[in-house]
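Holo prediction — dihydroflavine-adenine dinucleotide.
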Amino acid sequence: MLKDLFMSLSQNQFLNSTAKKYGLKMGAQSVVAGTNLDEAIKSIKELNAQGISCTVDNLGEFVFKKEEATDAKEQIIEVIEAIHAHKVDAHISLKPSQLGLDIDYSFCLDNLREIVERANQYDIFINIDMEDHKRLQPSFDILDELSKEYDNVGTVIQAYFYQSEENIQKYKNYRLRIVKGAYKEPEQYAYQNKAEIDANYIKLIEWHLLNGKFTSIATHDHLVINHVKAFVKKNNIPNDKFEFQMLYGFRKELQLKLAKEGYQFCTYVPFGHDWYGYFMRRLAERPQNLNLVAKQVFNTKTNTVIGLAAGAFLLGRLTKKK
Ligand code: FDA
């Protein structure tokens, strides 16, 4: 129920544009590394100093105008330039929808090509984050196109999709991030049951560790992490073949512990004004993350506006259901 509520809220464009006008609110500041590039670079430097590398996401979604997608492209190129100029240990994560996938496939491909080309000049890796099932195949198609010219690009495999086993074999020669999957997907395409998703997740990780290129295991699940630690030891998989990844602000002690134990560790660092959808998906994944909100919510006028709008939205949905 809560998961469904937050997933619906994450897709609400009115709340998204309302939230964008204000700074980080509702506890989002704990899990988003600021609204501008300077703040993001500061966080990256702090993480690097602790032996942690970063993947940087200049947050953005609900892009339906070409000008917005072009702005997003320019901003991501600025991030690439900043990574190079500051000599920080970081690469880029981006979403095809942010770069115009929902507007026009070729336009989006051209935007991505420009980004990958610039990053390639500095040997910076670009990760194409995976979104919902509607964008899955076009995102793989973009990867196929780009990889004809560049080798600094890779993507994400989401364990909840039935299709992922086939995809991981097809894309085994790419650097892949493997995740459980963050969007609400219909039964037609994806496992719904947590035990089934978890089992497929382990299966995909093991397969790629044994057969694939570099593997990023992106999870906050200590059971999965412990399983992977035992698996790599048993199979003599060296530490430079994989890394663990977690999101900025989550399980900070565990992030540091893994880095100190000598595992490669990468923190996903989101920043920017477009924090709302990202934040709502984090609440959908783990309602306990509401603790982050509880401390902050309704203490300013902005939060009251967002809170009231969310309440009205929820009421609308509940009434509709009846
Ligand atoms: P899950 O939420 O299943 O939790 C399992 C258990 O772990 C919990 O029961 C609890 O015991 C423990 N746990 C989890 N979070 C905790 C916390 N904060 N504190 C204490 N214990 C906790 N998705 C997608 O669709 N496309 C993408 O491109 C990406 N990219 C991405 C990058 C990175 C770096 C990460 C970490 C995640 C993504 N995701 C993603 C999101 C991913 O698909 C998934 O939704 C979330 O990571 C939640 O699943 P987990 O595997 O973390 O554990």
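READOUT: Confidence is low (pLDDT under 50) at residues 294-306, 315-322.
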